[in-house]
Write a structure and sequence with these properties.
Blueprint: H1 15-147, H2 153-170
Helix pairs in contact: 1-2
Length: 171
Amino acid sequence: MITMAGTLDFLSINVWHILMAIGNLLILVLILKKFLFKPVQNIIKQREEEIGKAYSDAGEALEAANAEKELYLKKLDDAKSEADSLIKTASDRAKAESAEIISDAKAEAERRRKNADEDIELAKKKAADEMRDSISEMVISLAEKVVEKEIDPKAHQSLIDEAIDSLGEDS
């Protein structure tokens, strides 16, 4: 259907239709913006905040974990140094006790040696006294036999003791 003006009816451009279509499009965009874009943007913004909070919480947790790790390592080092100190103290105490025991044993051995020396000296003196007494008795009995008379035993004993003492001092 060609008309006299030479235009086709179905291809004709109507300005009012174009303006109405643009108006409808603007209204549709405003409605979509109000009811769809803003809520979607709010959801996206809320999601970004949640993700940001999760990242900051994770960062804080990492910092706290690193601080706890440092504290743990410090406590571990302190415990190790304290254990080393206790071992050193125990070792020093054991050495001191060992030295004390050795010192006590040496002192006890020295005391026993001195006691043994004193016992030996006493035994020597006792043996010398017994020898002196026995020699005195022999000399007295020999002297009695030689002289065949009765001699005063006390005076004779003192003379013999003096002679034995002078002999004992010479040797």
